[in-house]
Write a structure and sequence with these properties.
The chain has 149 residues and is mainly α. It has helices spanning 17-37, 39-42, 45-57, 66-89, 96-119, 131-139. The model is unreliable at 139-147 (pLDDT under 50).
């Protein structure tokens, strides 16, 4: 009779302010992925808008699933910028155009891959035991359930 009582995790309500906040963050993340994907059509202007929004809203997504998406988007921007700088610098030796093409395809691949995982509401860089995995578990209110390791 002296068993320890473990309470059930609190229920998750569909229309709670927290779920409303997550829904708006998800919409924002989708809009940012669309801005990243549209860089082909705008010559990179939409990417600048997207990365500025990423940096401005980074604190709002802290501790949520979308923190990993924002980190992914910011990293994609900086790596693509580096690739574009290298490609532009090498245009004069005629290897710059293939580099710019590859960087463009790589950026589009990263945006599509992560955008699809955002649609499934999963982290874009899901690694077992990673912070993204922990955030996913927290979203489902399983953090209070004891784990056997």
């Amino acid at each position: 009779m002296n068993q320890s009582y473990e309470p059930y995790p609190p229920p998750v309500y569909q229309n709670s302010p927290d779920s409303e906040r997550l829904r708006s963050l998800r919409t924002l993340t989708h809009v940012l992925y669309a801005l990243y994907a549209a860089y082909w059509l705008t010559g990179g202007l939409t990417v600048l808008v997207a990365v500025i929004i990423n940096y401005l809203k980074r604190d709002d997504v802290a501790g949520t699933l979308y923190e990993a998406h924002f980190r992914w988007q910011i990293r994609t921007f900086w790596l693509a910028l580096l690739g574009h700088v290298i490609g532009i610098a090498l245009i004069w030796v005629f290897i710059g155009f293939p580099i710019l093409f590859v960087v463009g395809i790589w950026t589009l691949y990263r945006v599509i891959r992560a955008g699809c995982s955002c649609t499934r509401t999963s982290p874009c860089n899901r690694v077992p035991g990673s912070e993204a995995e922990r955030l996913t578990l927290n979203l489902h209110s399983y953090r209070d359930i004891p784990r056997h390791t």
